[in-house]
Specification:
This protein is α+β, with helices and mostly antiparallel strands and 276 residues long. It has 7 helices and 14 strands. Strands 1, 2, 5, 10, 11, 12, 13 and 14 form an 8-stranded mixed beta sheet that branches. Strands 3-4 form a two-stranded antiparallel sheet. Strand 11, helix 5 and strand 12 form a beta-alpha-beta unit. The N and C termini lie far apart (42 Å).
């Protein structure tokens, strides 16, 4: 499968969908994969050991973003392309979530991701025995190739970002494979995590997050110094379009080291979205 497969599916009104699978802070492969993705992200690869403790305690809830497909259908045929073959999949339910081999673009997305990130080609297994400090039974036979990760934090040092007693949670540690940034996966991951936050046991009343202030997006000199291309989208404005409102700016919040070893401070902007 190729990128053409994904575009074909989009034309057939098949929307990107994701499944979230808990990160296992005790599994060496999970730890290594998270490190690889944080290096690719460019932020906080040095924080993973601390995050392991927070994940165990339920203060962080890092989950892998795994490609899936959701199709609204009325007894129609979805066509999945596999190499030169055409495979017809009957979809007879009114709304069906199509996973793994039934996903007409799943393999194309994974192939596109691992072609740029060959160190991520090996699948992981679902082994986490808890999430948010609550025991769970993992499906250890389930293998998957994560194309990103996201966390829903319940406790951090800034109570305006996360306060469990007030049902306020922070969306954090959010990364999508750069090769797949234009397929709506980030938007769908946010939809999924927001829906999850509303339900039991969290019953979130509000969500918050922080990110680099939008003025830095256009600071080409800084991105060149980091040895990185500017982000494809203006992140602050992307969150604002989702209904998040700015409530705080903090200067020198992010301290990013450039290729010369110099520290470049970046302003953070905090945003909040009321759910109820």
């Amino acid at each position: 499968m190729t990128e053409d497969t994904i575009q074909f599916a989009q034309k057939r009104n098949v929307s990107a969908k994701v499944v979230l699978i808990p990160w296992d802070p005790e599994n060496a492969e999970h730890i290594e994969r998270l490190y690889i993705q944080r290096v690719a992200c460019g932020w906080h690869s040095e924080m993973i050991e601390k995050w392991r403790g927070m994940q165990r305690e339920g203060k962080k809830a890092i989950q892998w973003i795994v490609s899936s497909i959701s199709s609204k259908c009325y007894s129609w045929q979805a066509i999945a392309l596999s190499g030169n073959s055409v495979q017809h999949i009957a979809l007879t339910e009114r709304y069906r979530q199509v996973l793994s081999e039934d996903d007409p673009t799943k393999e194309a997305k994974i192939a596109q991701h691992v072609s740029q990130c060959p160190e991520e080609k090996d699948p992981l297994f679902d082994t986490a025995v808890s999430l948010r400090g609550v025991p769970r039974v993992p499906s250890e036979s389930l293998s998957f190739v994560p194309i990103g990760h996201i966390s829903l934090d319940s406790e951090i040092r800034d109570p305006t970002l996360a306060n469990k007693r007030e049902h306020l949670y922070r969306i954090a540690t959010f990364f999508i494979s750069p090769t797949l940034e234009s397929y709506g996966i980030g938007r769908t991951a946010m939809d999924t995590i927001e829906s999850m936050a509303l339900k039991a046991p969290l019953h979130a009343k509000a969500l918050a997050l922080n990110t680099v202030a939008k003025e830095h997006h256009y600071d080409t000199e800084k991105w060149i110094a980091y040895g990185r291309a500017p982000p494809k989208i203006q992140v602050q404005e992307w969150y604002e379009r989702r209904g998040y409102k700015v409530y705080k700016h903090e200067g020198d919040y992010f301290l990013q080291k450039n290729q010369a070893g110099n520290i470049w401070p970046l302003t953070a902007v905090s945003l909040r979205k009321n759910l109820v």
